[in-house]
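Database export, one record per block. Field names are fixed; values are copied verbatim from the stored entry.
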Amino acid sequence: MSETPKPPQAGDRLVASSAPPRPHRPARPGRTPVTLWHRLVNGAAYVVRVAARMAALSVLLYAVFTVFRANPANIWYQFVESLAASLSLGLANLFQLADPRWTTLVNYGLAAIVWLVLGSALSGLIRRAAP
């Protein structure tokens, strides 16, 4: 009572393919190989992008601290406030709304958006420097 073997399935990995092996193709067809210069340029663009995002984060964090009335005597609040004051790009008093909390949110939120746009644009320009 021996069982007859089943015919191999098309998706079975143990079945050897009868097709000829595919020829090797280069990993990056039609492109120049990655050089040290490309790596340096990409690294610089990455650093610029991360620095701009960190600046935007600190400015936005100060706006959130202000809207939710964080304790101004707290050391973290003071640290974020000092960072945001230097990173506000002169936009801290652009709009004057009735509520000072919303004024801070709008002005520093706009500064955060400007940081993100500038960081992205500068990063793109740096990447284009690589031939």
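Remark 1: The radius of gyration is 28 Å.
Remark 2: Helices lie at 36-67, 75-87, 100-128.
End of record.
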